[in-house]
Amino acid sequence: MRSRLEALIDEMLDGQILLDEALREFERLYIQKALTRNGNHLSRTAKTLGIHRNTLSKRVLAYQKESRSTGKAKRAGA
């Protein structure tokens, strides 16, 4: 796993991806995948991730809001 991560990091650095953006995207995808594996069940997913259900719920809502605002910005610019 380490060598795959190092290759991905090299690729991201070459693409000038900022750490904050990389961490946010990783967390979003990690949560999304865990939710899918747990049938979108928040409590089970939170347990799988080792975080409180309320924390997971807040993060999911934040990513949903971020997604909607990004979509609006793209449509406005088009």
Kindly describe this structure.
The structure is a single chain. With 78 residues, the chain is mainly alpha-helical. The protein has one domain (18-77): Arc Repressor Mutant, subunit A. The protein contains 4 helices and no strands. The protein starts with a helix and ends with a helix. 4% of the residues are buried.
- Outline the biggest β-sheet: none
- Tell me the number of strands: 0
Give, in order, the helices and strands: HHHH
Q: What count of helical segments does DSSP give?
A: 4
Beginning-to-end CA distance, first to last residue: 39 Å
User: How much of the polypeptide forms β-strand, as a percent range?
Assistant: under 5%
Indicate the structural class: mainly alpha
CATH class: Mainly Alpha
Rg estimate, integer Å: 15 Å
- The CATH architecture name reads Orthogonal Bundle
Give the overall shape, derived from the CA principal axes: globular
Please sum up the structure shown.
The protein has about 80 residues and is mainly α. Helix content is about 85%, strand content about 0%. Helix 3 (about 40-50) packs across helix 4.
Task: Give the SSE map.
Elements: H1 2-14, H2 19-37, H3 42-49, H4 53-77
Helix pairs in contact: 2-3, 3-4
